[in-house]
Design a protein that fits this description.
The chain is an alpha+beta fold. Helix content is about 40%, strand content about 20%. The protein has seven helices and eight strands. The chain has a four-stranded antiparallel β-sheet, with helices on both faces. A two-stranded antiparallel ribbon has the order 1-2.
Length: about 220
């Protein structure tokens, strides 16, 4: 499975109790990553609302979805951000491969590969719908929480994947929220790649257990 490959790849990059984002070349024979070819352009599904959306079975996507503007930064507090993180892990293994994510105060970045039979649109609808309802309960409010349309980018090759992987983990630093990427609590750099934290969370163990079954 790719998560195991990623963890082994980062294993030699210890920084305290976390791992430093890797800037070296990605491993050879990257498992499951589909490189786009000219032939793919003939079968790729394209749709457009305000933004263009490309979908191709077996591909990996860099996705961004944002909160409604007037809400400010509703994901600053730990409870709403934890709900988003929990929702991302709920579908991991069965609905998609979760390579990386970061939950910023007013938006979320995700790097994922949908499983066969699961469209990206259906996955995002499920994540955003569930988290909107649950976070609204916590905040004591009603109405829309997320912007209706998400941004998605079809990953072209290993270099593109690595660029988005690093961008996701560096986002809190670039935004001035922390000095080091490994100090931001709501990102896969900390949750997946820190020693002990992944194994200490019950929902993470459940996700890994499902992943192990999928890899048999």
């Amino acid at each position: 499975m790719r998560m195991q490959i990623i963890r082994e790849w980062l294993d030699g990059k210890h920084v305290g109790q976390a791992f430093q984002p890797a800037f070296a070349s990605v491993p050879a024979n990257w498992p499951g990553l589909r490189k786009l070819t000219r032939e793919d352009l003939r079968v790729v599904s394209f749709s457009r609302r305000r933004l263009p959306h490309w979908e191709l079975d077996g591909s990996t996507y860099f996705v961004t979805f944002r909160t409604i503007g007037p809400l400010g930064a509703p994901l600053e507090s730990s409870m709403p951000a934890s709900m988003v993180e929990e929702a991302l892990w709920y579908g991991c293994g069965e609905r998609y491969v979760l390579d990386a994510y970061v939950i910023m105060p007013d938006h979320v970045h995700v790097l994922m590969m949908p499983s066969m039979g699961w469209s990206l649109a259906k996955i995002l609808q499920s994540i955003k719908g569930f988290t909107a309802r649950e976070i609204n309960k916590v905040l004591g409010r009603k109405g829309s929480f997320w912007q209706d349309e998400s941004f998605d980018h079809l990953i072209r090759d290993e270099m593109d994947w690595q660029d988005k992987f690093n961008y996701i983990h560096d986002n809190p630093v670039e935004a001035g929220l922390v000095n080091r990427a490994q100090d931001f609590p709501f990102s896969s750099l900390v949750t997946i790649y820190s020693k002990g934290r992944l194994e200490s969370l019950p929902h993470m163990l459940h996700a890994l257990a499902r992943e192990g079954k999928d890899g048999q």
